[in-house]
UniProtKB/TrEMBL annotation:
Ligase is among the record's keywords: no
Region forming the signal peptide: 1-22
Subunit structure of this chain's protein: Component of the periplasmic nitrate reductase NapAB complex composed of NapA and NapB.
Stored PANTHER family: PERIPLASMIC NITRATE REDUCTASE, ELECTRON TRANSFER SUBUNIT (PTHR38604:SF1)
Keyword Membrane attributed: no
InterPro entries: Multihaem_cyt_sf (IPR036280), NapB (IPR005591)
One Pfam family matching this protein: NapB
The entry's keywords: Electron transport, Heme, Iron, Metal-binding, Periplasm, Signal, Transport
Subcellular localization(s) per the UniProt record: Periplasm
Location, primary (coarse class): periplasm
Identification of the protein by name: Periplasmic nitrate reductase, electron transfer subunit
Similarity section: Belongs to the NapB family.
Amino acid sequence: MKKNILISAIVAPTLLATVAFAQSTGGISTLRGADVADPVAVEDVFHQDETRFARNYRQQPPLVPHSIDQYQIDLKANRCLSCHDWTVAGERKAPTLSMTHYLDREGNQMDTVAGTRWFCNQCHVPQADAPELVDNTFEPSN
């Protein structure tokens, strides 16, 4: 018990002295060079490319040629289906989902997207002209 009191008696004044010293020397500077409340402009690392990219291997899921930043995809809603579901794709001039998306686990045809295919961004990602994060020697198949 006496050790805890002794440690508290040493640590508390040291901590207060450190804070007082930091404030007296002009405050604590941030690593990003701006105040927390100030917006900081960040340069674009990539840009969305709306020209369709070629697939690199057989059965590769198509890449998404548009931004999906504001798309809601959760248990109750899937914004992708507002254009790509077979019931509306023709009038929206959007590619229709593959019929495999309408098969249940037993292979039975359904009128709605199967739960196993509901979360589109598990397989389909937005295409972007972005720099490689690591060196890569991948070559597409013929």
